[in-house]
Hints:
Layout lengths: L1 H19 L2 H4 L1 H12 L7 H16 L6
Helix pairs in contact: 1-3, 3-4
Amino acid sequence: xxxxxxxxxxxxxxxxxxxxxxxxxxxxxxxxxxxxxxxxxxxxxxxxxxxxxxxxxxxxxxxxxxxx
Length: 68
């Protein structure tokens, strides 16, 4: 299970980097594909990770700048 958690954490960290650099505005398709690679673990994601993914999808759909 530790390997799975590490994989999820690595992918969530990468998603955070994409969002914080506004990569989703430049390459929304690539970021959506990355989100899908994390979302397949939905049943074991934390509530915080699920919320982050929802917000990231919304930012992509609305072409909103990600401000932290």
